# Entry
Amino acid sequence: MRADSKLALRTLYPPIQPYAADWVTVENGHRIYVEQSGAPDGIPVLFVHGGPGGGTSPVQRRFFNPRKYRIILFDQRGCGKSQPHASLNHNTTQHLIGDMELIREALSIDNWLLFGGSWGSTLSLLYAQAYPERTRGLILRGIFLMREREMDWFYKDGTSRIFPEAWEQFRSMVPEGEQNDLIAAYYKRLSDPEFEKERLQFAKEWSLWEASSVTLMPDEEQQAHSVDPIFALAFARIEAHYFHNRGFLKRENQILEDAHKLNGIPTTIIQGRYDSICPPSSAWELAQAMPWAKLKIVPIAGHSAFEPAIQHELICATDAA
# Structure
């Protein structure tokens, strides 16, 4: 870690290997991959990945001091190492919240810190609102509240104005008559058996659109990973499934309206100023609904957790928790 100057950005902790990894069997035939690393007797922290459908990777262990934290990563239903791969059956937000609680019980954890960005911030907030007594703190990044206006920004008119060339490629994949609702158009092609032969092609385009706008500076490695067939199929199918169903929430502003349930839970919100996927307005609104939360808008950063300045703030937050 670099700490020789106040101006030096914090970097990730060194790579580590899990000391335990297994699958937790949940209802409806799903098996959830769960791994633990760091200190077995440390502060339990659950890494809640994005997407939906993004899965975890070894680098995500490195946001946490391994001598301080019991680091828990899990792949949500249908993605990463969880099984069955890319499955949409019995895959809703309520199922994921239930899976998280089952993992907590299986690991004999009384309460834990939740660390989540993008969709991971959405799911962390919803879990904490369902189980505030089990949530010892929240570190959130790139806030997404699963509202119509946020999906319209990314899939209709918003991000498209910043990345017009990537948008044109994404939009042109479907007939002009369906371009007014790209979530529905892609969801049909990613889930309907009629389009099974073309499914992977549409999955790659869905995934590439997000990868093209996730960082402030273009990231060719991120874009190449986004079109990996195994990753893209799970990511695109599951994300389109959730967005088409509006996150399976009961109310448009459910998260903000229920923010009072989190009163007293230490919360840090880290948001890139130039996040073109989840603009800062949602982070600002969340902070207004949670006046006890600490909001840090990072001046030179986009959406990714691996933007240097956001990475710095996230590590500072985990060190301070």
Residues 205 and 304 are 19 Å apart (CA to CA). Confidence is low (pLDDT under 50) at residues 1-5. Residues 229-244 form the longest helix (16 residues).
